[in-house]
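Holo model, erythose-4-phosphate. Inputs:
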Amino acid sequence: MTKLFLDSGDPKETKEALAVLGMIDGQTTNPSLIAKNPEAVGKKFTREEINEFYKGVVREISAQIPKGSVSVEVYADANTLAKDMIKQAGEFNLWIPNAHIKLPTTPEGLKAASELTKQGIKVNMTLVFNQSQAAAVYAATQGAKKGDVFVSPFVGRLDDRGENGMDLIKNILQMYRAGDGHVEVLAASIRSLEHFTKTIEFGCDIITAPLKA
Ligand code: E4P
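Output:
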């Protein structure tokens, strides 16, 4: 059965989702969702202040879903090295007991994932736009336990640029069928009810959706 995550950087939305649905299996956050948190809008933060704010937010979320997974994303751009991601991941992973650390699926992000999964840190490989990235995640994290690695294809952003995001979900699920099941597919960047229902129809492992979806 497809697990349901909330895509939000606001603990109040966690509360609302729990009130409406009775349960959720997890929540995904990222720096832009955190910036949209009503308490952050319009404020200027230093990196240390951002980290403190982000820590407070994920702690509030984690306390509401202690048995679920909470994705916490590292700050990275095209030039960020694996060692910097590993350092942030180690720090963020101490904030809560149920973190999946989100890393970009770049060559450096994959190096970081390989090292972190060996240390027993759970990862959510994000910004996935093609099947080769999903294959690379599988290879980089071999040996990890099922549940410790998510791969996040960005359905809506692919649709935005004229490609078919749902086809990517279907193709990755099919490619992984021949494997050992250690990577779970998490459909992200969900924009519509059609994305939502199709993800479930395809038997995707996890879907993360905004509260309005
Ligand atoms: C979740 O993990 C992703 O960060 C999120 O779904 C991205 O959504 P967006 O394309 O709407 O930014």
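The two ends are 18 Å apart (CA to CA). The pocket of erythose-4-phosphate is lined by residues 7, 28, 30, 71, 126, 152, 154, 156-157, 188-189, 208 (CB under 6 Å).
Archived with the compound record.
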